[in-house]
Design a protein that fits this description.
Elements (H helix, E strand, L loop, with lengths): L2 H9 L5 E5 L12 E4 L8 E2 H10 L17 E3 L1 H13 L5 E5 L9 H7 L6 H6 L10 E5 L5 E5 L10
Antiparallel strand pairs: 1-5, 2-3, 2-4, 6-7
Length: 164
Amino acid sequence: MSLKQRDIQKNEIKVEKSKVSLICQFSFELIRIPVRGEFCQHKQCFSLNSYLELMFAMEHKKWVCPICKKVCFNFIIDKYQQWILDRVRQLEINVESVTLNQDGRVDKEDPLCQIISEGKIRDYNDVIKWGFTQFQRKSREIDEDDNGSSIVLGRNEGQTIIIE
């Protein structure tokens, strides 16, 4: 190893784990579609739906990442974080963040790791049955449709944005 390579290694910061929020910074609800800008280097995602709603409402649009402020015209959907979010919704658990390891996977020490990886856990009742009592059930809201019928909505339900 050359002297230059050793100097570079001395100056590098190695991040073993990072805590990533699953909550949208705009709507304060669970992220719907987790994205980053194509030039972003961070693991934290933001909600595409909320970001686009905000941009369409602004008179002077600044298409930059809300996290790192880099130009943000193209978005990359983080399919792994989408899978985590889908599992959290399916299990109806209240989770605000997750710890990721260097590879971007849920850290084995994070309590969520075993729950989302275990295929036998299908809903909140299974979460409790398997002894994961530290997780609370996500609250639900009741809404009425046009006919007066009650509809149970998850607290984190959102609307779909169609760009024409």
